[in-house]
Specification:
alpha/beta, Purple Acid Phosphatase, chain A, domain 2, six-stranded mixed β-sheet, binds fe (ii) ion
Length: 223
């Protein structure tokens, strides 16, 4: 998307007045058909306008790792958005504290034969959770949900674009997930564990999106 669209998305996100803003990776277009080249400093400056009571946090996606992880890291650092790389922080007011944990990307390195080696460390990340307060976990690809323990109250994921091209009354034609349509989109509940997979905003591989509205997901948590 062009910079005007990024600006519009940030304005919309800000208008929601959220307590916490999380951004789940894949910050720039890497397919060939882009309409406008947006330098890292430009999109990061727009994201830098996001403000929330408990802060704005980011994690890395696979495209960030594959194409320019150092550039993305530097751009987010420049605008003071913390990058959660297998890390956890305790947030919230006394009596209403919660952990925000974020893992690094699960598909960071292509090692051949359609296989990837991740930078993710879920056990190491959760080992940093030192109190009984609830945990919100940020992951780029939803596939790790099968390994997320019930200790985590909510997992937030992106990556799939909800399948990106979806015809009415049909499952997605293709989803970048080993589990097909199972984790493609929405609020997924399995064995009392919750995950929300955002449809995200852009496109991947091809500049076409059909049947999956670009979205900012607003999550309201209850006790
Ligand atoms: Fe991705």
């Amino acid at each position: 998307m062009g910079i005007a669209r990024v600006r519009d998305v940030v304005d919309t996100a800000q208008s929601l007045n959220s307590d916490l803003v999380v951004i789940l990776g894949d910050y720039f277009a890497t397919h060939r058909f882009i309409t406008e080249h947006v330098p890292h400093a430009a999109w990061a400056a727009e994201l830098g306008r996001l403000k929330a009571k408990h802060g704005v946090y980011a994690i890395l996606g696979n495209h960030d790792w594959w194409y320019d992880v150092d550039g993305v890291r530097a751009a987010l650092h420049q605008v003071r958005i913390p990058l959660m790389s297998n890390d956890a922080v305790l947030l919230g007011a006394p009596g209403a504290k919660f952990w925000l944990a974020g893992i690094d990307d699960q598909l960071a390195h292509y090692v051949g034969h359609k296989t990837f080696r991740g930078e993710d460390d879920l056990p190491g990340t959760l080992a940093k959770v030192k109190t009984d307060d609830p945990v919100i976990l940020l992951v780029h690809e939803p596939d790790i949900f099968t390994q997320v323990p019930p200790r985590v109250a909510l997992t937030l994921a992106g990556h799939t674009h909800g399948g990106q091209i979806v015809f009415p009354f049909m499952p997605p034609l293709w989803t970048p997930s080993a589990y097909g349509a199972r984790y493609a989109y929405g609020h997924i509940v399995e064995q009392d564990r919750h995950m929300i997979v955002s449809g995200g905003l852009g496109t991947s591989k091809v500049p076409l999106r059909l049947g999956v509205t670009p979205e900012i997901v607003r999550v309201t948590l209850g006790a």
